[in-house]
Automatic annotation (TrEMBL):
Pfam families in the record: Abhydrolase_3, HSL_N
Name of the encoding gene: RvY_10002
Organism name: Ramazzottius varieornatus
GO CC, any one term: cytosol
PANTHER family according to UniProt: HORMONE-SENSITIVE LIPASE (PTHR23025:SF3), TRIACYLGLYCEROL LIPASE (PTHR23025)
Record-given protein name: Hormone-sensitive lipase
């Protein structure tokens, strides 16, 4: 028993900062065990596993060295070799800790497999659950050495792809996802070992958890192998580019073909079932589970309507309420949800993507907006006619004569058309035109109701992959912004693809920006400060506006806020593209549809993608 107390003290000293109350509880439990108690070994295992469970949670969110969390006795029992000394490198330290935990997971798997193999050998008719469990654990034991080897190499080379002073890139993110999967498998195997002899233990439940995460580990193993291929390309070229072979299709055609045939054809269902978003924090995980369930439910209704009457799929929005009630089968069976989601995103067309991404604009959510969002005195759509006008040119050198820049309306692909923008303001300001309940245009002239013009204007471009959503869908946060900032907000409704592919959206957003500069007095704005804001595709567009303003020497925006903007829209293999295979918010099939629809990109990638999807 004295040795047990020494082990507990050793681990408590390392873990006290992680969870002091829980560690004290373990100390008290162990101190009450008599020296002659024959259950000493079981208590030893339980105490060490309790400590490790807290270490696992810390490991999932940090790169600290966890060798100190596993006692020397436990490492000896599990057959884990002593950790060699490493220089103080974050990635190498993390790699050593990962190796220790993988060895520990391997030993746990062998222990559980041996236990149930004994039950199989002793029974005249083996339990099918035991047979499946031992098979799954054998598969896990095959994956672990390969994952360890690939992860070790990735950990060694990932720092070479960092920006100066920033320890972060897609390779590091992929390693964190692998770590999260290992932690989940450790937790499941530790739970099984500690409870397998108890009467209330449910083998099927633990089998399901382990099987699902072993499938995830197997897919991650394949993804790691492909990232090694990308690293080989960069090492051979003598560069450290996150986009290997980033010159032309001819230069990286082999890599693209390997990507499409090996990676994008992987079975992604393991990422969208009960393991959905396992690598993110619990609060976001719950939201993503809800979104994927809604997507699978909507896809089922969409497909049924298309079969009954081709072209009627978007009408699934009308049945949104009943669809939510029908989603219980996907809640009860997450793997069925995963299959429906992967099938829909790979087989359905862009119309399905546009319909689902526009669900927040349906009448179902209008009462929610009315009750929960701040009230706005002004929330009006303005139709901008396609007419030319001039703006003053910025003088680059002193003494230059004032010139003007001629601004033409957008004309790409579909010719000149009116452009819709939305003006929001919580309070009415001078110069703004409004529509009252009788749909008549008037100006409020009462001093008590009209505020002076604002010195600031927020210019907004919505997201949606260039193919969906509108300024109305962004009411959820635009009203909050307008209420908090107390400034007018102008949001542009650019033409969506495929009706208006690139560069139509860029032209229209730039034209709306120029119109705001030209007619600032109509917006309740003095013209002093303007900030561009865009999320996702909108972030791409606001950068395009800034580039156009610079190229034409007109006034530049005073600031840009681009939220998760895709600034490299060409579909080139990269570590972040690998991770996108498991993205529950924008599945890879939807992403491919959006890119092809927006850019009309026809190349080797397009031909292979069409054959794969």
């Amino acid at each position: 028993m004295e040795g047990l107390h020494q082990v507990i003290d050793y681990n408590l000293e390392a873990c006290c900062k992680a969870a002091p109350q829980q560690m004290d509880r373990v100390r008290r439990v162990v101190s009450r065990v008599p020296t002659e108690d024959t259950r000493c070994l079981k208590m030893f295992r339980k105490a060490v596993d309790t400590i490790l469970s807290f270490a696992f949670s810390r490991f999932a969110s940090s790169t600290m060295d966890l060798s100190s969390f596993t006692s020397e006795a436990e490492r000896t029992r599990c057959g884990v070799p002593e950790q060699a000394e490493h220089p103080p490198s974050t990635m190498k330290t993390s790699s050593a800790s990962r190796s220790n935990l993988l060895y520990y997971l391997l030993s746990l798997g062998k222990d559980n497999a041996s236990y149930y193999q004994g039950h199989i050998s002793a029974a005249s008719e083996p339990d099918e659950r035991f047979l499946e469990l031992t098979a799954v654990l054998r598969v896990m034991s095959v994956h672990i050495p390969e994952v360890e080897q690939s992860a070790a190499r990735l950990a060694e080379t990932a720092p070479l792809f960092d920006f100066p002073g920033v320890e972060g890139n897609g390779y590091r993110s992929l390693l964190q996802i692998v770590d999260a999967c290992v932690v989940k498998l450790l937790e499941a195997n530790v739970y099984m070992r500690n409870n397998r002899e108890k009467f209330h233990f449910r083998v099927h439940s633990s089998l399901t958890d382990i099987r699902n995460y072993v499938e995830v580990l197997g897919t991650l193993r394949a993804m790691l192998k492909y990232t090694e291929r990308m690293i080989d390309v960069e090492v051979a070229a003598g560069t450290h580019d996150l986009f290997p072979g980033n010159t032309s299709d001819d230069d990286n055609s082999d890599l693209l073909e390997d990507w499409l045939l090996r990676v994008e054809t992987l079975d992604q269902t393991c990422f969208f079932g009960s393991c959905t978003a396992f690598h993110v924090c619990p609060s976001i995980r719950a939201a993503l589970h809800t979104i994927t369930t809604a997507l699978a439910t909507f896809a089922e209704k969409y497909q049924s309507l298309e079969l009954e009457n081709p072209g009627s799929g978007p009408e699934a929005l009308k049945y949104l309420g009943s669809n939510l009630l029908a989603s219980r089968k996907f809640i009860m069976d997450p793997e069925l949800k995963a299959q429906a989601l992967v099938t829909s995103t790979r087989e359905l067309d862009i119309t399905f993507c546009k319909a689902f991404w526009s669900v927040s604009e349906s009448r179902f959510f209008e009462p929610v907006h009315w009750w929960m969002l701040p009230k706005a005195d002004l929330n009006r759509e303005i139709l901008i006619e396609p007419e030319s006008f001039t703006l003053p040119k910025i003088a680059l050198n002193e003494g230059e004569m004032e010139e003007e820049v001629f601004i033409k309306p957008p004309s790409a692909h579909i010719g000149e058309r009116p452009l819709m923008v939305r003006l929001l303001s919580t309070r009415i300001r001078e110069g703004q035109l409004f529509i009252d309940a009788n749909d008549t245009v008037k100006s409020y002239k009462l001093p008590s109701r009209v505020l002076p013009k604002s010195d600031y204007l927020l210019f907004h471009a919505h997201g949606g992959g260039f193919v969906a959503q509108s300024s109305k869908a962004c009411d959820l946060y635009l009203r909050e912004w307008a209420d908090h900032l107390q400034i007018p907000i102008l949001s542009v409704d650019y033409t969506l693809a495929p009706e208006g592919p690139y560069p139509r959206a860029v032209e229209e957003t730039f034209y709306a920006y120029c119109w705001a500069l030209r007619y600032a007095h109509k917006l309740g704005w003095t013209g002093k400060k303007i900030v561009l804001v865009g999320d996702s595709a909108g972030g791409n567009l606001v950068f395009g506006v800034a580039f156009q303003a610079f190229a034409q020497s007109i006034r530049m925006p005073d600031g840009i806020l681009a939220l998760y903007a895709p600034l490299f829209t060409r579909y080139t293999p990269s570590p972040s593209r690998v991770i996108s295979l498991m993205d529950p918010l924008i599945p890879i099939g939807d992403f491919l549809f959006a890119i092809r629809t927006c850019t009309n990109y026809r190349s080797l990638f397009s031909l292979l993608a069409e054959s794969c999807f």
